[in-house]
Every structure is written in C-alpha cells, then in structure tokens.
Amino acid sequence: MARVRMRDVAEHAGVSVRTVSNVVSGYPHVSPETRAKVQRSLDELGYRMDYMARGLRSGRTGFIALAVPYLAEPYFAELAQAVIRAAGRRGITVLVEATAGDSEVERRILEGGLTNVADGVLLSALTLPATDGAAARPDFPLVMLGEHSVGDQFPRVGIDNVAAARTAVEHLLEQGCRRIVALGRNGSENGRQRTEGYQQAMSAARVRRVNWLVAPVDDWTREQGCAAVGELLEGDGPLPDAIFAFNDALAVGALRALDASGVRVPEDVAVAGIDDIQESAYTHPPLTSIAPDLDVIAERALTLLEEQTQRRTGPQDPVRPGAEGPAGAEDPGTEPATARREATPFRLVVRESSLRRPASA
C-alpha cells in the first residue's frame, strides 16, 4: 500500500499543502473549522508523519526522552502518564527509559546518551551525586524532575519537598499525635528534604525530642515500609501514635505491618504519606497523602524543554520552513538562560488513615 503523502491529504481536504503542514505541526493560527476538516482527512487517509524527513528539515525529531528510576513504582508510572498526555497535546512522542536508580545509567543520560533519538530529556535522577563531574551544562535540552539535584545549572520542576513534608506532619500533629515516626530516611536528597520538613513541624510544635522517631530504609518500597514498621513494632519502646511515610509505597507497606500486628489505624496509629498515588484511595483504611499536581509538573517541564530547544534550533515555523524566527528571537546557538527551579503546587488529601479527631475539631 502506497504511503499517504501530505499532498494527498491536501487534495482530500480541499486545502493547500501548507495548511496541512500547519495542522500537522500544531501551528496555532489555523481556524477551528479548517483544522477539523484537515484532521478528518488525516484520520480517514491514515496519514503518518515522516519524522526522519521532518528532522532533516527542522533539526528536530519530534521525540523527547523521559528517564525515571522505576516504572513498577506507581508514582513514576503516573508521572510518565502525565508527561505522555501533555506531550501528546503538543504533538510530541515520549520515549521512556527506566534507570533502576543506577548512577552510571543516570550519568550516561546526563552526558547525552539519549540524544541520538530525542530532541531533549526529562530526567528524574535518584542516585547521581550532586557534585558529579558530569554536571557541566549539557549541549542538549534537559530538565530535571523532582528535588534530586546534580547542579544548579539544570532547570528543575517539582514540589517543595520540605513544605510538603511539613504539611503532612502538621496535619498529624493537629490530630493530637506527638510520638511520630519519620519513615524513609535513606541518604537521598529527597529523603534529606522530607526529614527537614518533619523536623521543622515537630520543632514548631515543641514536641519533645524523645518523641522524634526515625525509621531508616534502603528504598522507598512497600516491602521496605512493611519491614521497617514490623521491626519498630517488635521493639521494646512504646507504640508510636503516627507514622509519616516519605512516599505512599512506604505507607502502604506500613499499613500492612500494622494490620498484621493487630494495630488499629487510625485509632492506635495514624498514617500519612506523600504522592497520592491512585492506590492510596483504595487501601484499608484509605490513605491520607500529599498530592503533587503531576499535570502541572509535566506541562512546566515540557515548556522549559521547548524553550531550550528553540534556543538551539530556532522557533519551528511550519508556514515558512527555514525562515528566520520572529523579531527579537534568540540566535539558535544562544546558551540557555540561567537555570531556574519551578516549584509546583501540592495539596493535602485527608482520608481515614489519619483522622483521629472529628472533622469539626
């Protein structure tokens, strides 16, 4: 079967080839009626973009890479879905890479290991040292996701970890909890910041230091959360009255350990986490959690990536391919502006796992 060309679509829709190009490339100045008519022809004829040809003309492939530690962990799977949705609205295809939290894999990506197939990279690093020698400004568009930093020269998008942790612990304190366990310290930057938020809330509430409890783990998984809380319950000390888990996977594991030991939640021990993964609404009892706005994270990260791409290749103008950008546009070779940190919104979602007092209280 012969490949459908842009000219074929133009003839089918009764418009010019340039108009079809504008619609395919996402050019905004096309009337809704014309765009709908062209899209119907694209769908009926089964037109597919020739990414290789477009890349030769524009210097772009139409692909970006998203590198996350794990796809089996719900937060990163849901983050990937948010990025894919946002990229789809921009006509961009996302290639997903799982690094397994391996610092060598993260370093290779930072050094350009995915740029042979992608215009830019969104990287959620986990273990790459903040002072790593590879952390020079890369020669390709890159945005960091989350709070793990490998250099201030990289733009980053994510929630304020300290504020998020502080908010969760303040909620537990408002429920009358005082002997609160911080579940999740592991030496990572995220762990350090969430520990700081925990400490700020406990200090502001003037909780005695003897009640500042920490349960360290190696990884933020259900298994580690269950094991750490199981050990805590087997100890000789008094039972904590709350657990603040550094992510929801740890919190789910904590709920399992508490249930296995006959500990009631929230009557005996209240539990709260961070991430508000979809699973959290269906645990027993449903889990209180800090909910980051993943859609906002994805949109802002893609905007920062696109800004860098335009500085290197120039604005993509589907009306006049190869023409100069608009007046005042930066030269394609211009270095990116000073990297900035985009703090995205979050909210506390209160569910039964932490409600030890009536809502009216």
In CATH, the architecture of the largest domain is: 3-Layer(aba) Sandwich
Tally of extended strands?
12
Largest sheet: 6 strands, parallel
Q: Separation of termini?
A: 70 Å
Q: State the helicity in percent bands.
A: 25-40%
What's the arrangement of strands in the largest beta sheet?
2-1-3-4-5-11
Order of helices and strands: HHHHEHEHEEEHEHEHEHEEHEE
Distinct helical segment count: 11
Reading off the top of the CATH hierarchy, the class of the largest domain is best stated as: Alpha Beta
Number of domains: 3
Describe the structure.
The longest helix has 20 residues, at 294-313. The chain has 361 residues and is of the alpha/beta class. β1 (63-68), α5 and β2 (93-98) form a beta-alpha-beta unit. Helix content is 38%, strand content 14%. The protein is built from eleven helices and twelve strands. The radius of gyration is 24 Å and the shape is elongated. The strands form two sheets. It has a six-stranded parallel β-sheet, with helices on both faces. A six-stranded mixed β-sheet has the order 7-6-8-9-10-12, with helices on both faces. The chain folds into three domains: 1-31; 58-158 and 295-314 and 327-343, 3-Layer(aba) Sandwich (Rossmann fold); 161-292 and 346-354, Response regulator (Rossmann fold), CATH 3.40.50.2300. α1 packs across α2, α1 (6-13) crosses α3 and α2 (17-24) crosses α3.
Which SSEs are present, and which pair or pack?
Elements: H1 6-13, H2 17-24, H3 32-45, H4 51-58, E1 63-68, H5 74-89, E2 93-98, H6 103-110, E3 121-123, E4 142-145, E5 156-158, H7 161-174, E6 180-183, H8 189-204, E7 212-215, H9 222-234, E8 242-245, H10 248-260, E9 270-274, E10 288-292, H11 294-313, E11 341-343, E12 346-349
Parallel strand pairs: 1-2, 1-3, 3-4, 4-5, 5-11, 6-7, 6-8, 8-9, 9-10
Antiparallel strand pairs: 10-12
